[in-house]
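Example A, followed by Example B.
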Amino acid sequence: MNLSQYTKEFSYNLRLAFPVILGMLGHTLIGIVDNFMVGNLGSTELAAVSLGNSFIFIGMSLGIGFSTAITPLIAEADAEKDDKKVRTTFHHGLLLCTILGIGIFILIVLAKPIMNLMNQPKAVVDLAAPYIDWVAFSLIPVIIFQGYKQFADGLSQTKYSMYAIYLANVVHIFFNYVLIYGVWGFPKLGIVGAALGTVISRIMMVVFMHYILKHNIAFKRFFKNFTFKEIKKSILKKIINLGLPSAMQMLFEVALFTAAIWLSGSLGKNSQAANQIALTLASSTFMVAIGFSVAAMIRVSNAKGMKDYKQLITVARSIFLFTIMVETFFGLVFVISHQFLPHLFLNMSDVSQQLDNTEIIFIASKLLLVAAVFQISDGIQVVVLGALRGLQDVKIPMYITFVAYWIVGFPISYYLGKHTNLGATGIWIGLLSGLTSAALFLYIRFARLTKRLANQNQ
């Protein structure tokens, strides 16, 4: 098969992925705005937000992971031109996302006492508690929003969620500003103001998404006559069977990176700062791979619905190839700029910080060299996962990701980070090992499944 069969798919893949990439960066922007505005209040407040968000991030990963089950089911039904199946999947998915959002909110609030066991300063814990309550509540609208987003994604309409996220960012910046600092007659609420800004913006995001889809000519037929009488246990079970392993896959990866943050923190504040710089840069480029993962999930589901397995393999490989090219480019940028990029995150004019800054730059620049390689592994594993979700194959990939991240990756991170002179670089070598193992075995899984499907079709 010649290369042009793959490259001719690039432009459509990019059209599907691009709004998702911008939307994911929009989600990231909400956290950046919180850190920037709260950072002006002081280091204790910033530490409280960071601690609070480590809880929220785990809850959010479960919600987002679960909701991805909706997209392949919708995309398959869309390819089959089965409107009834699209509508039923959407309504059942939205109901499950609502229940899950409420459940995760309650769980996070109940889990708050764990903060007291994490050897955090009392002042940080006291500030983090009310912040967690409000931001955990904001997960209810976030996960409901995911229900709408995955439905629209399944119909290959990826741009509407991007519009909603950027509207949420505008609302978020406004309410953060007035509620954190108490301007224009609003009360000065500090970090609770940041949490309330997040809640308001996320509720607006759902309201906007509901309105824009319900009044869109292509979607409005799917919004009619929602009743609980139509809810069927068999359809709920089908979505849960796809959603639960997907949620666990995302949780295993998020938990590994959270463990890397805590491991780096145990090596000292400069290692933690360097880890945060490298992680922020690597996360930004990872958003591109997530966009391609969604494109893979949609297009593989469509081809599966049409039972066109030859096209399915071509489409998937074209996305894998494009991802490798893009992530290799980012890797080269990291290699070329590894000494320069850390400077962007530090106040180089502060003489009192000069010694710390020198050490942070030294560590972060080495981490970026490791990140340059793991860009490619991370990109491959997430797009292959997207393609496997498109095939509705989630159980075996769940076991693969657990073994790759926690049996291979974490022990290497722990050993090299804590018991050798490599320090933070050793932790990242462990991350690279886990991601590379996941990429390799997920690809083998995908190749075997698609070969079997193609042979059945002959």
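Example B, a separate protein, is given below in the same form.
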Amino acid sequence: MKKLESSLTNMVLVLTGVAVIMGAILAGVNHLTEGPINQQKEKALADGIKSVMCVSDLKVAKTDEVKQNDPKGKELTYTIYQIQDAQGKDLGAAVESTTGGFGGDLKVLVGFDPEGKILGYTLLEHAETPGLGAKADKWFQKGEKGDIIGKTPSEPLTVSKDGGQVDAITASTITSRAFLLAVNQAYNAYKATPAADAETGATKQEKQEKENEETDDEEVEKED
């Protein structure tokens, strides 16, 4: 067999052939792994929703997407999972929110009750420094130093260094700010959904009806 001459044309042909073969191999591997990876992400999301809503027996009644601008004017998309219990009662929503942390994107899943109170949270993705910013997965949980559970971000949550009431992660103020921004934006996105507005309106109406009933009872007692 005649030896292939060493020329620019031949080298280009060889490199092109290698690139095509490697591309085909990578495409095949990607096709084989795509399914399991997606299944793993779906399971992680399902487990995360149960965790942040603090309920195991639930269902996602509806999924909404809300687009809002961040403080810098960049349009971001938030995914809102409207949650119901087994009996169909509205429990609130789990909201996906992403901001830029110290090491990269910080994706948070936050659970809110119908009134907007934080039920729980979990980190879906992050690239924060191990032992520092990565502590965000525990630092803001119930009973921890930066506990935000039970708070309603109608007034934005901020770290104490910025005049707020939330203790930042030690030596990780940037991550703490990014995390709280993600939570605040998740709240704003949730309250912008029609379901949240309807729930808020219904709640206000129930409170008003209750107040009216109490007023009527008081007037009856005075007449008696």
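On Example B: Residues 37 and 135 are 25 Å apart (CA to CA).
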